[in-house]
Amino acid sequence: MSTSPVFFAGLDIGGTTVKSVLIDGEGELVGEMVEVRSHVKNGYEATFAQLESALDQLTGSSGVRRDQIAGVGLDVPAPSSEGVIWAQANLGSDWVGTNVRDLFSERIGGIPVYMTNDGNAAALGEYAVRKKHFGSLLLVAPGTGLGGGFVLPGGRAWEGANGLALEVGHISIPHREEDGSLPQCSCGKLGCLEAWVSLVALRRRVAIELAKPENAAHPLNDGTPVEEKAFRLREFAERRDDLAIGIFRQQGNLLGYGLADLVRVFDPGLVVIGGGLAETGFRDQYLEWIYQGFRERAWPVYLNSPIHPEQITTVFEWATGGDAAAAVGVAFAARERFS
User: Fold this and answer.
1) Within this chain, do residues 96 and 172 fall inside the same structural domain, yes or no?
2) For residues 163 and 75, is the Cβ–Cβ distance under 8 A?
3) Are 269 and 136 in contact (CB under 8 A)?
4) Which residues contact 145 (CB under 8 A, 6 or more apart)?
5) Are both 242 and 266 inside the same structural domain?
6) Is 1 inside a domain boundary?
7) Cβ neighbours for 234, distance < 8 A, ≥ 6 positions apart
8) I need a labelling partner for 85 at 20 to 30 A (CA). Which of 21, 97, 163, 222 fits?
9) Residue 9: how many CB atoms within 10 A of its CB?
10) What is the pLDDT of residue 53?
11) Minimal CA–CA distance to 100: which of 125, 119, 73?
12) Domain co-membership, 219 together with 103
């Protein structure tokens, strides 16, 4: 007697788009990633309509029936626990306190849904694409903020008792501005790693550096908004501009310094760096700056084995999952739970 094949969908809810993928029971991608507009600011009901549209496009283009989907993975750009959104973040106000997981499961006919945050989803995606890696994995992803996730051996994300684990951007590091002050983080606290390593931090650093007399004639001092200056900084770094290189070197060093404490807690063996810097022409240099900061803070045993000195105990790699990483991650998580 033949058994009908089953499939698992992954839906990655972002601020501007919903990215979605379909995998089969063996974990192989089926068809192409589908991307639709996100309506998170308009409320969860409007977003549910977009999620269903993505599901319909996934199944329609792959010749898969809705009743063949055995589970759905869903990630949200906000803290949550057991499917309930805890904070508004970049969502509409009606998300807070809502059990998004269960309501969406009801909407799609009772298909079970696994839900986590976007940092965990990206970490799960990076784990899934590394088919020969069976240990743990720590992901940090500098972007507008500084997100992260930790995957245990076997492929489960460590989410904590309340789904609030791995807020890696909000550990503190002993670094201060030149005047002795601590930068304010988006969370309202002072001196968080995210306040030093993020797009928001980059904007602050660009403004500080361009205000110095020695940088008055720099091409970026052209009257454009600081957001545009920060965006163009990568281009200058690729041209080996001293100011740009100095800013990115500081961010890389401080990220590595903070990672040393995270590695001391989790001992992941593999640290994956996500975010847009993975696509720059100076990414190899940036990874070396991270490792310099890491070496400054890390104990020797987190660099090389004391038994076999040639064995590197903490490996750093760039993310390879691309735009679909988070969607792939929650699809694999759904497969692991609902097979």
Assistant:
1) no
2) no
3) yes
4) 169, 186, 194, 198, 199, 200
5) yes
6) no
7) 244, 277, 280
8) 21
9) 30
10) 95
11) 73
12) no
**Would 2 be classed as within a structural domain?**
no
Instruction: Evaluate if residue 162 carries a pLDDT over 90.
Output: no
pLDDT, tens digit, for every residue of 19-49? 999 999 999 999 999 999 999 999 999 999 9
Enclosing domain of residue 101: 7-130+323-338
Encode pLDDT of 119-140 as tens digits. Answer: 999 999 999 999 899 999 999 9
User: What are the b/e assignments for 221-253, b being 16+ CB within 10 Å?
Assistant: eeeeeeeebbebbbebbeeebebbbebbbbbbb
What is the rounded average pLDDT of the residues 288-317? 96
Say yes or no: 144 and 273 in one domain. Answer: yes
Provide the β-strand partners of residue 312: 304
Residues 11 and 152 in one domain: no
Q: Distance between CA 150 and CA 139 in Å, rounded?
A: 6
Domain count for the chain: 2
pTM for this structure? 0.92
**Dist. CA 63–CA 258, nearest whole Å:** 47
Whether residue 206 sits in one domain with residue 330 = no
∠ at Cα 143 (142, 146), nearest 5°? 50
What's 296's domain CATH number? 3.30.420.40
DSSP classification of residue 12: E
Residue 124 near residue 111, CB atoms below 8 Å: no
Residues 153 and 264 in one domain: yes
Contacts of 282 (CB under 8 A, 6+ apart): 237, 238, 245, 248
Which of 70, 69, 75, 97 lies closest to 84, judged by CA?
A: 97
CA separation for the pair 117, 146 (Å, rounded): 13
Predicted local confidence at residue 1, as pLDDT: 41
